[in-house]
Task: structure prediction
Amino acid sequence: MTTAPHLLEARPRLRPGVVLGPAVRSGAALVHNVKDSRTGRYFQIGPREFFIVSRLDGSTTLAEIGREYATEFRRRLGEPQWKQILATLGSRQLLDGAGEVSGTESKAGSPAPSAERSLLNARITLVNPETFFRNVQPRLRWVFSSYFMVCALIAILALEVTVVVKATSLLDEARQLWNAPVAGLAVVVISWLTVALHEAAHGLTATHFGGSATEIGIMWRFPVLAPYCRVNDVLLFRRRRHRVYTAFAGVFAGLLALLPVVPVWLFAPPESSLRHAASALLVFGSLAAVANFIPFLQLDGYFMLNHALGMQNLRIESYRFIGQLLRAPRRDGDSGVLARQAAYPGRVRAIYVLYAAGSALFGIALACWFVYSLFVALQGSLGAVRAGAVVAMAVAAVTFALVTSQRRRRSKVDKPAT
Result:
């Protein structure tokens, strides 16, 4: 079917403030993230849609875009396809003069809904920090200089070497906080503030690379209650290293915050609460950094790995891939398995299998360690039988919460849109 001449001569343009992100892997497909800065709403489009949208500059006609599209994808777009594309963009108010080009009335997009709260995961938004970070970032631009980064990394390396070498004495001193509740409370408060600094570093780094931070709030992720900073704009950064740097910024800031603790630990009296508090901060801060780098905990290391691989939702997609492998033989037979596997490039299949296997092994090891540690802690006061009963009830409660949360998530995904 040929396209109407007047439509072919149209030169639609994206509305100012629409930002197009790079291609990232999500499952078997490549996707591009799109943000409407005016509404704060994000969309995902495929490579074909991105090919068209990225050329809507107000000077290129649809006929020219159509010829390029036909050359790239060996398929011509007819009038129904062009009308549907323009109507969709217009309904989302992504086009300048959408009513004139598409002939449809635009409807403002709404921000993405907040994450569902559950017993194991919840977020409470407190403020929008975008203006604050934009005002502060020019004054802290020196923090992102190569000179500062190299010096800071050398100092952090020296700090961590010291913590490893002095680990035994640091742990012994940190345990003394049980006898100094005021100093222990101070350590908790300082550690919580360090986490807030950690999150602020993500927002500042995202702002430095041209993005924005849209939320600061409190996050509950069993069993941790901590601040969080939402920086979805990281998905729009063209360079992978900028995305990796933004994810790394939190751990970097947390380790930097430990540097002033070192002289306190060195010069405080050996048996003082100040020395014990400094030891605890060095130990817990270093352990927190290590935990953040573990890619199976969905902390900074997980997102760094996602960005470094050019992927999105690595954990979810790897589990989905393994689930398809396990279910397909029963449902589709060998041909179904082959068809599903063909959709995934070989590199992607290998990454998903390795990540899923590593995640499963890590989860099993962590669960076994937790159960054993809880049993040992309770055995001395309750006895083996009662301690085992308490541990069994704890495992049952956590399992119930996990199953309930998973069922709610599945029901929400499977529920048809209205």
